[in-house]
Amino acid sequence: MKFAKFSQKLSLWAGSPGTFLIALALIAIWGMSGPVFGFNDTWQLVINTSTTIITFLMVFLIQNTQNRDNDILHLKIDELLRATKDAHNALLSLDSLDLEQLEKLRQEYKEIGEGERLKLDELPPEQQQKPS
């Protein structure tokens, strides 16, 4: 099984309410077992080690999922730019620019939009937000 598929399935499972309840139950059991073990160092070490290992592994899982979601979002935006007649197709290759170039471009777009703010009541009816 590819890592991407594995991480996607695991992230869906890890983010589910059932998994949260299981984790909550395990912490409650650990907490209630404290008096049995006299709240000793080994008892504390069990939860500290367990949570550290799980957190360490989840960092990689979350990063993989975010990278995938980010790629998907960029592809969707690229398609919208490509399909929009008045869009600047040069924006499709922004990922090749360095941080300084991106900041310059961001400033240019900010200047373009400064005088373009519309009040909600000036929008045509089809663009106005409808109450839900």
Produce a short descriptive summary.
The chain has helices at residues 3-14, 17-32, 34-37, 41-83, 99-113.
Describe the structure.
By secondary structure, the protein is mostly helical. The chain has one domain (3-112). Helices cover 68% and strands 0% of the residues. It contains 5 helices and no strands. The two termini are 43 Å apart.
Approximately what portion of the residues adopt beta-strand conformation?
under 5%
Helix-strand makeup class? mainly alpha
Question: Regions with pLDDT < 50 over 5+ consecutive residues?
Answer: none
Distance between the termini: 43 Å
Helix and strand sequence = HHHHH
- Sheet with most strands: none
Task: Tell me the Rg in angstroms.
Answer: 25 Å
Helix content: 55-70%
State the total count of DSSP E strands. 0
Give the count of structural domains: 1
- Put simply, the count of helices is 5
Instruction: Give average pLDDT, whole number.
Output: 85
The dominant shape is: elongated
Features:
132 residues, mainly alpha, 5 helices, 68% helix, elongated
How are the SSEs placed, and which strands pair?
Blueprint: H1 3-14, H2 17-32, H3 34-37, H4 41-83, H5 99-113
